[in-house]
Amino acid sequence: MAEISRRNVLGGVAMGGLLWNTAALSTESQQPPYGPAPAPLDGPELPSFRYPLGAQKTEQFNGGTAKEANVTGFPVSEKLAGVYMTLEPGALRELHWHANAAEWAYVIEGNCRVTTIDPAGQWEIVDFGPGDIWYFPRGHGHSIQGLGPGTCTFLLVFDNGYFSEFGTFSISDWVGHTPPEVLAKTFGVPATTFADFPKKEVYINTGPVPPPLPLQPAPDSQNAPPLTHRYRLRAAKPEDFAGGTERKASSSEFPISTTMTGALLVIKPGGVREPHWHPHAAEWQYYLKGSARMTVFGSHGRALTDEFGVGDVGYVPQGYGHYIENTGSDELHLLAVFNNGTYEAISLTGWMAANPDLLLATNFKVPQATFANFPKGPVVIAEQG
Ligand code: MN
Ligand code: MN
């Protein structure tokens, strides 16, 4: 009852229903499970499943840039959010943690170094290049620094559509809002030590490119966690299908990634990631190369088709049917990130192949012979017909 009372104080919740007076809610209370119930999937028409992240305004920082996709601009994406970020050589995305989401990332271009800390006090400092992914469990501390040469560009994905910087806790912000006397006692140094520390959040700062990591670390210099934060996704051997390839990093391939799975799909011209659904995960997509058409099936006769290009984000609610066609003359490359560390999918071809032709004939009211040449198992990525 205490929780319900608190909600009423915060903003006029309709008891027993899902109506929220969002304008009266504090920022703190907008995090799940307290977030407003999204209505976008309830209506007779499906909402948009495309968000043009690349076309959004870029926020400039000292040494880097960022742009974000979350429920604010993309209401249907309640389970996952993303940030497109760049860092110049030496620029540091400062030490921080996220209270409300795990962080998954794919390096699109360039090189960077991350530092991590976990609750056991174990750390990992590791470098990333194009095609590598990282995963930071919710609440674990981390930083990201551009190594050069050139700009490092990466895509961050969070397993919470309500993710925003309001749930990000930065070290400069915290230290800047802690009295110097407390810092002096904590660190055992004079209070004046902190006189020139920033008074507000740094977010990104420029600095020197750090030296290369030692190939052979010195004795007693490491306290590594048992599970690494890095997985070389693009370097991994893919699963081959008639119309393309797929590289997946679930917790099977990338054990630390317990709440998210990432996949890199390459679809040949004319190919299609066949109709399928994911029983226990929503899917957040980023289109890296080429052009695509995705159709989402939302039951009750609802299906929505949209065109996707480089820089677009796509979203498929958990359990919704969907398929993706390569509409270009070149390969289509896209990332698909799921809010579950176990990968599950059921394909239309596999489902039908698992049922007798007689049943299918009855189901569709067509002759049984119709199904004689249908695939005998899942196709997954079909080639041009
Ligand atoms: Mn982060
Ligand atoms: Mn899918």
Describe the structure.
- This protein is mostly beta strands.
- The protein folds into two domains: 6-230, Jelly Rolls (Sandwich); 236-382, Jelly Rolls (Sandwich), CATH 2.60.120.10.
- Helices cover 10% and strands 34% of the residues.
- It contains five helices and 26 strands.
- It has a seven-stranded antiparallel sheet with strand order 1-22-19-24-17-16-15, with no helix packed on it.
- The longest helix has 10 residues, at 2-11.
- The structure holds manganese (II) ion (2 copies).
- One manganese (II) ion is lined by residues 276, 278, 283, 316, 322, 336.
- Average the pLDDT over all residues and give the rounded result: 91
What's the CATH topology label of the largest domain? Jelly Rolls
Mind describing the biggest β-sheet? 7 strands, antiparallel
Helix content: under 10%
Order the strands across the largest sheet as they lie in space.
1-22-19-24-17-16-15
Which segments are poorly predicted (pLDDT under 50) over 5 or more consecutive residues?
Answer: 1-32
Structural class: mainly beta
The domain tally reads 2
Q: What would CATH call the architecture of the largest domain?
A: Sandwich
Instruction: Please report which band the strand proportion falls in: under 5%, 5-15%, 15-25%, 25-35%, 35-45% or over 45%.
Output: 25-35%
Spatial extent as radius of gyration: 24 Å
Q: Which shape, going by the Cα principal axes?
A: elongated
Question: Care to give the gist of this entry?
Answer:
With 385 residues, the chain is mainly beta. The chain folds into 2 domains: 6-230, Jelly Rolls (Sandwich); 236-382, Sandwich (Jelly Rolls).
